C-alpha cells in the first residue's frame, strides 16, 4: 500500500493560481467521489485552504493514481496537466509532507497552528463521506499526534509573528484581559486599522478613531464598529483610553512629555500603551521613560515579530527530527499490515 | 525528627528554585505545577516541624529567631499557595522559593535557643506574635509580586523582551496582587497591634517604634495607592523596599523583644 500526495501551495503557485484550484466545501463530496473513481485509489482526503490544495490517497498503483490526480487537478484549475504547477509525493515523502503540513512547518508563517484545525476538518469530511481507508485513518491520526508533539516539545509556536499579534501580546502583558479596554486610533492608516482589528478580536471594549479629515475617521469608525472623534478633541478623551495607536502624517512628534504629563495625571496611575506606527514618528521616544507609559514604534514591533520567527526557524531542525521518528513509526505500521502476519491489533 | 522536617523543607524550596532557574536557562520554562508542588511540600514539612515544636513547648512556636523565621516562611508559603493559583501568577513560585530558601537556611544556621518562660503565659501575646508574622508573610509575598512587577515593567520598557517576559503575569494583575497582599498584611498587622494592647505589652521601646514605623510606611503606601498618587513602578518599589527594611529590622526587633 502506498500513500500519495499531490497538490500546490503558496510556494509553488501565486494566489491567483491557487484560487482556481480551491475546492469549496460544497464541492468536497463530489471531489472525493471522483478521486476514489481513479483507478488504483482506495481512499482519499482533500485538504483545501487559502495556502494549499492537496490530495492525499492510499493506493496500490501509485503511478496511475498520480496521473489521475494530475489530470483531475489540472481540470479543476482549467489548465492542461503539464501546465499546472503541481508537486507530488509517494511513500515515504507523502507521509513526511503531511506530518510537516499538520505541524505548521510547511506554512507561510512557520509554526502557525490554524493549519492543524484545517487538516482535522479535511480528514473529518473524508471520514464522513466514507473516503478514508484504514491506512488514511491511521496516517491522519498519527499526523495529529505529531503536530501535538511538535507543538509541546519544541518552541515552534513561540511568540507573536505579526505587528498586530505583537501589539495584542504586549497589551495583554500590560492589562491582562482586554475586554474592558478602550483603544484610540490617531490617524486612520491601514496598519493602525489592522492593529485595532487584532485588538478587537481579543475583545477590547471600544475604539475611538480620530483623524485630521473627519470623514476618513467616520468611515473607518463605521467599518470597525468604533466611534469617530474630531482631531481637535482627542486630548479630551485621553483619560479614558488604555491603548493609543498613532499613525498621523504630522512632520513632528505630537506626543511629547510636556503634552502627556498633565494628561497622565488625570489617569490616576493607569498605564497607557502607545503604539506609534507613523514614520516620521508621532511619539517622542522620551515618553517611554514616563511612569505608566509603554511606547512601541513600528521598528520595535517588527523586531519582536522577527525575533519570534527566528526562534521558530531555529526550532525547525528539532521538529524535523521529531517528525522523522514518527515517519519511521508510521512506515513500520504500514509495512506490518501488509506482512503475511498482519499487524497486531492495538 | 525536627531536623529532618527542616531539611526536607529546605530541599523542597531548593528544588523549586533550581528547577525554575534551569528551565529558564534552557529556554524551556512552562508555567507548571512543579513550583506549586515544591512550595506545597516545603510548607507541609515546615508545618510538621512547627506542630512538633508547638506540642513540645505547649505554645505557638514563635519564641526565638529560628522559630520566627520558619513561621514567617511557612506563612509566606501558605499565602503563595492561596494567592498564586488564584491570580495565575505562574512564575511566582520561582520568585517565592529563593526567599523561602534564604529564611529556611538562616533558621537552620542560627542557634536554636530555648524560649523565655513568660511567653507561655498569655494567649494574647501569642496571638499578637502570630498575627504579626502572618502579616509579614503577606508583606513578603507583596514584595515578591513587587519584584516581579519591576522585572516585567523593565521588560516592557526595554522593548526587547526576553524569554522570562512570556512567563510573567501582566503588570495589572501584579499591581492588583500587590495591593491586595499589602492590604491584607496591613490589616493583620493592625489586628496584631490590638492583640498587643490587649496583652498589655508596652507601647514604648525600640520594638514598638520599629513596628510602628513599618505599619505607618505600609499605611502611607496604601493611602498613596488608593488616592492614585502612588502607582506602577513607584508603588511596587515602595512595597518591596519596605519589606526589605522590615526584614533587616526583624532580627533587631527580636533582639529588643527578648530584653523587653
What are the salient characteristics of this protein?
heterodimer, A: 346 residues, alpha/beta, Beta Polymerase, domain 2, Rossmann fold, 2 domains, 6-stranded parallel beta sheet, 4-stranded antiparallel beta sheet, 11 helices, 10 strands, elongated, B: 260 residues, mainly alpha, 0% strand, flat
Plain-language structure description:
The complex is a heterodimer of chains A (346) and B (260). By secondary structure, chain A is of the alpha/beta class. Chain A folds into 2 domains: 2-153, 2-Layer Sandwich (Beta Polymerase, domain 2); 163-303, NAD(P)-binding Rossmann-like Domain (Rossmann fold, 3-Layer(aba) Sandwich). Chain A has helices spanning 15-21, 28-37, 62-77, 93-102, 114-128, 134-153, 163-175, 190-201, 214-224, 257-265, 298-337, and strands spanning 2-9, 41-48, 52-59, 87-89, 182-186, 206-211, 227-230, 243-246, 272-276, 293-297. In chain A, the strands form 2 sheets. In chain A, strands 7-6-5-8-9-10 form a 6-stranded parallel beta sheet. Chain A has a 4-stranded antiparallel beta sheet with strand order 2-3-1-4, with helices on both faces. In chain A, strand 5, helix 8 and strand 6 (206-211) form a beta-alpha-beta unit. In chain A, helix 1 crosses helix 3 and helix 5 packs antiparallel against helix 6. The longest helix of chain A has 40 residues, at 298-337. Chain A is elongated. Chain A starts with a strand and ends in a 9-residue tail after the last helix. The model of chain A has no long low-confidence stretch (mean pLDDT 89). With 260 residues, chain B is mainly α. Chain B has one domain (2-259). Helix content of chain B is 80%, strand content 0%. Chain B contains 9 helices and no strands. Chain B has helices at 2-25, 34-57, 65-86, 92-109, 123-158, 163-167, 171-198, 205-227, 232-259. In chain B, helix 5 (123-158) packs antiparallel against helix 7, helix 5 (123-158) packs antiparallel against helix 9 and helix 7 packs parallel to helix 9. The chains are: A alpha/beta (346), B mainly alpha (260).
